[in-house]
Amino acid sequence: MATAGATTVLDIQRYRADMALLSPVGVDHRHGATNYDHAETEVARAMVANADRVAILPDYSKIGQRSRISYCPVDRIDMLVTNRKAAESADFAPLKKKVDEVVLA
């Protein structure tokens, strides 16, 4: 179940958030956070636009992956929270260099 659509996006735009917490389908150092669903992507974009900080929460399997729709450029990602296995990926180092804060849990 997900909340999506024009009404959801309009509601998000009415508020400011300290931090948006988003889970992408993929995240890489060139395209940032990506998704494949248009409706979910529009909600995520609205959240990114209306938050002071953005935290992207991918598990290790999503590092270096990308989907067809980008919703958060890598330079807008303030924090990347992932599991320790992500550090084993060759795609992790270039991503880590572009993100302000990385948390390995």
What would you say this structure looks like, in words?
The chain is an alpha/beta fold and 105 residues long. The protein has one domain (6-104). The chain is 26% helix and 30% strand. The chain is built from three helices and seven strands, in the order H-E-E-E-H-E-E-E-H-E. The protein has a four-stranded parallel sheet. A hairpin with a 3-residue loop joins strand 2 (26-28) and strand 3 (32-35). Helix 1 (6-13) packs parallel to helix 2 (38-49). The mean pLDDT is 96.
Straight-line N-to-C gap: 26 Å
Which shape, going by the Cα principal axes?
globular
Summarize the helix and strand pattern as letters: HEEEHEEEHE
pLDDT averaged residue by residue:
96
**Low-pLDDT regions:** none
Tally of DSSP helical segments: 3
Which class do the helix and strand fractions yield?
A: alpha/beta
Strand content: 25-35%
State the total count of DSSP E strands: 7
Helix content: 25-40%
Rg calculated over all Cα atoms: 13 Å
- Largest sheet entry: 4 strands, parallel
Domain count: the total is 1
- What is the topology, as strand order, of the major beta sheet? 1-4-6-7
Summary?
The chain is α/β, with parallel strands linked by helices. Helices cover 26% and strands 30% of the residues.
Main attributes of the structure:
four-stranded parallel β-sheet; 3 helices; 105 residues; alpha/beta; three-stranded antiparallel β-sheet; single chain
List the helices and strands and how they pair.
Layout: H1 6-13, E1 17-22, E2 26-28, E3 32-35, H2 38-49, E4 51-56, E5 69-72, E6 79-82, H3 92-98, E7 101-104
Parallel strand pairs: 1-4, 4-6, 6-7
Antiparallel strand pairs: 2-3, 3-5
Helix pairs in contact: 1-2
